[in-house]
Task: inverse folding
C-alpha cells in the first residue's frame, strides 16, 4: 500500500489556496517526504503527521520553493528529541546547503543524517531520474516490490499445508519444492509505483522513466506554453501528454502557479488529453492498494 | 503613529495556535519587519501585507526560528519584481547567511540589499541594543522623533500667521523670530517608542535600554524559571519585572512556547506584577498615536 498526502501543491510563492511543494508518501510503514518548501512543518501539523514520522527526505532540486523548509524541519526534529536516523536523497549540493544553513543558525542535529543517492529496502525502492528544469533536477520513482502469494486451495490440492514452507516460498526461497509446483500454487501481486517529477518541462527523459507507473505526479505550473518554456515548467497539457505517452494509470497535477485561483481550466485542458487526471488540493489524500 | 501587527507570537517550533516570530511595524509610512521565522510570507499574506511593503528587515539573532523565513521572503520579493532597495539590520553574520542561502538556492536578487547596523530618518530611528540569550542577540528600539506643533491661537495673539514661518519653526529653523516667542507659540508632541527584545533572559542590559518606552514587546517563552534560564529565555514574570523596572507604558508578551495551548497562566502571572500587560494572538494589531 502506498498512501500519498499532498501537503503543498503550489509553486514559486505560497498563495492563500496552495502552499509550497511537499508531498508525504507512506509506503510499507516508512514515511517519505518529497520536497520541503518553506512552511512544510506547518503543513505536516495540519495533516497530523509528526516530523518524527519522516524516515526519508527526497529533494528534487535546489530552488528555494522546494528546499527552504528543510532546515526548519530538521531543527524541529531536534527540538522533539529525535534520535532516529534520517536519510536524505537529493541533488549534489543538498548536503552543503543543509550544513551551511544549520551552522548559520547554530543548529547541530543530535540524530544522524545519511545522505544517499537512492534507497532500496526489502519492500520498496526510491529511484531518482533526471528531469528537465532550469537547474539540475531529478524526480523520484517509489516502487513497492511484487509480492508472491499462496493459493491455499491449490496448495491443499497438492497436500501442502506447511506454513513455514509458505513463508519460504513467499520470500523466494524454495529449495525443498519443485519450481513447477511453486508456480502452480502461487500467484503474483504486482507492486505499486508512483512517480514525482518535481519541476520539469515535457521531455523524453521523464517519459522514459515514468513509463507505466500507477500514478504520475507531474509539474503543471502554467496554462500558457511560452511562460512554461521560459521557466522550465510544464503546462497542464504537457503533463497530460506525458501521462498519455508514458501510459501511466493516473495523473496528478501539482506545482500550480499562485496566479491561478480557479484551477478549472488547467484540469479541463489536461483531461481532454488524459481523462484520468486529478488536480489535488493541499492536504488531500490518495491511497493505492 | 506606529502600528504593530504581531504576525507570529510563538517560538522554537510553530504550533496550531502560534507561528514563528515576526512582528510588522509601520512607522511614518515605512514598513519594518522584526524577525522573519519560517512561514513569514504566509503570515504577511494572511495579514494582507505585501512583501513589497517591507522597507527594513531587522533580525534579532541567528536562531532558525527567527531567521529561516528570510530567504523565501527575499525570493518572493524577487518573483514580484521588486526594484526598491531593502535595508537589512541584524547580527554580524546575517549577510553571510543570506548570501549563502541565496546562492545555495540559485537566487540572485534584482533589487539592492543594504546591510546596516541601525537606521536614522527625519521621522524615526531604529536602534539595536544587546540582549542576553544563548548566542549573540540584539533587540530594537523604534522611536519617532518629538514633533513641534504651533498653537495657532497664541500665534494669532502675537500677530503671526505666516505659514512659511510656521513650517520653519516646526523643522527647528527659526532665525527670523526670537526663541522666547517660539517657546510661547509652540508645544511639543513627544515621540512614540517601542522596544522589541527578541530572545532574552531578564537582564540589566535590556532594562537600561528599554527604559520608559511606550510599548515593550518582551520574550515570555516559559512559565518555569529553570527551563527559561537553561535556554536563555524569560518567564512571563521576568517580562513583567522588566516592564515594571523599566517603567514602560505597556507590555506585550511574545515568543510563547508551543507547549502552552492555554496561555492564561502566563498572562495572569505577568499581570500580577505589571497590570498593563497583553498577550497578543497571531495577526492581532496595536496602534500608538
Result:
Amino acid at each position: 500500500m502506498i498512501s500519498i498526502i499532498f501537503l503543498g501543491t503550489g509553486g514559486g510563492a505560497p498563495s492563500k489556496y496552495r502552499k509550497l511543494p511537499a508531498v508525504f508518501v507512506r509506503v510499507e510503514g516508512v514515511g517519505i517526504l518529497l520536497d520541503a518548501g518553506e512552511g512544510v512543518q506547518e503543513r505536516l501539523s495540519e495533516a497530523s503527521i509528526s516530523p518524527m514520522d519522516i524516515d526519508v527526505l527526497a529533494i528534487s532540486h535546489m530552488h528555494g520553493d522546494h528546499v527552504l523548509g528543510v532546515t526548519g524541519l530538521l531543527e524541529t526534529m531536534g527540538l522533539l528529541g529525535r534520535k532516529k536516523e534520517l536519510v536524505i536523497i537529493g541533488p549534489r549540493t543538498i548536503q552543503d546547503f543543509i550544513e551551511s544553513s544549520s551552522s548559520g543558525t547554530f543548529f547541530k542535529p543530535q540524530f544522524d543524517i545519511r545522505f544517499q543517492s537512492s534507497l532500496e529496502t526489502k519492500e520498496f525502492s526510491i529511484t531518482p531520474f533526471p528531469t528537465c528544469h532550469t537547474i539540475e533536477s531529478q524526480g523520484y520513482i517509489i516502487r513497492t516490490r511484487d509480492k508472491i502469494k499462496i493459493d491455499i486451495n491449490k496448495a491443499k490440492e497438492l497436500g501442502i499445508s506447511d506454513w513455514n514452507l509458505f513463508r519460504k516460498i513467499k520470500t523466494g526461497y524454495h529449495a525443498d519444492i519443485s519450481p513447477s509446483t511453486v508456480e502452480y500454487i502461487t500467484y503474483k501481486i504486482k507492486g505499486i509505483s508512483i512517480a514525482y517529477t518535481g519541476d520539469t518541462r515535457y521531455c523524453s527523459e521523464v517519459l522514459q522513466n515514468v513509463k507505466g507507473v500507477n500514478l504520475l505526479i507531474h509539474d503543471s505550473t502554467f496554462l500558457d506554453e511560452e511562460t512554461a518554456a521560459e521557466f522550465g515548467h510544464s503546462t497542464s497539457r504537457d503533463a497530460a501528454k506525458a501521462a498519455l505517452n508514458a501510459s501511466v494509470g493516473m495523473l496528478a497535477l501539482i506545482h500550480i502557479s499562485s496566479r491561478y485561483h480557479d484551477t478549472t481550466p488547467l484540469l479541463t485542458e489536461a483531461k481532454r488529453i488524459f481523462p484520468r487526471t486529478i488536480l489535488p488540493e493541499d492536504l488531500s489524500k490518495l491511497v493505492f492498494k
Notes: The interface with chain B takes residues 12-16, 19-20, 38-39, 41-42, 45, 62-65, 67-69, 71-72, 75-76, 79-80, 93, 96-97, 100-101, 104-107, 135 of chain A (CB under 8 Å). The mean pLDDT of chain A is 96. Residues 11 and 255 of chain A are 5 Å apart (CA to CA). DSSP finds eleven helices and 18 strands in chain A.
